[in-house]
Amino acid sequence: MNDEKIGEIELRGEIGSYGTSAQQFADQLKALGDVNVIRLLINSEGGSVFDAASMYTQLLRHPARKEAIVEGIAASAASYLVQACGSIEMAPFSFLMIHCASCGSLGTSSDMIKTATILDELDGAIAAVYARRTRSRADSWLKLMRAETWLDGREAVNLGLATHAMDGDAKPITSAFAKAQRGVANRPTSACNAISAIRDARANSTQRSIPASRRDVLMFSERVRADQIAEGREENRQRIISNGSPRQAAKFLKWS
User: Fold this and answer.
1) Cross-strand pairs, 8
2) Of 2, 8, 35, 44, which is the most exposed, with the fewest CB atoms less than 10 Å away?
């Protein structure tokens, strides 16, 4: 018997005072009542950094399981808002877009310097959200943000900003790394297969000519995967040690 109580929130258009504000989002969340699954349907070009940050926090604090479906685009502020959801599905032909924060400013040169400092701080905070989600380095995300990077469903999954994507026939897309990582969680030796899978996927995806921005995404994707594999090895090592098998742990460390 399925006793899930699912509540849906539709977030379409701008985030902020000219679209959906943080207060309106809070009202929608409260109106869902006693649900254990929140499904966020999103198609947004972004908007206010702080309204999106508030929405992100509201979702994190809610005890329900969170699922997001990117129907068309989750750009700018919307791209980090959805990271509060455990499951992020990229619909066919949908995109994530990440870039640096921007604003308009009036005043003296000192005012401009202060504004630039604030924007740098916001960029660091946004990059930290992506880094936390993907267990990778924030400075690598800053590089992609400064280049204004567009990610289709497959790329978003490979970089860790989405959990799965759907192709034009509504069939799920799972990256080679995602398949291999399931093995890493079960036994240490699977990491060798994971690395081979990554290399094969990289070779297949680079057979055609790729623009510079795409090459940056692929290189970063491989770096993120390597970080995640390393973390998987450490988790396995800790599990072996906690099970009281020091000889196995020593063997595992030697293999690593």
Assistant:
1) 39
2) 2
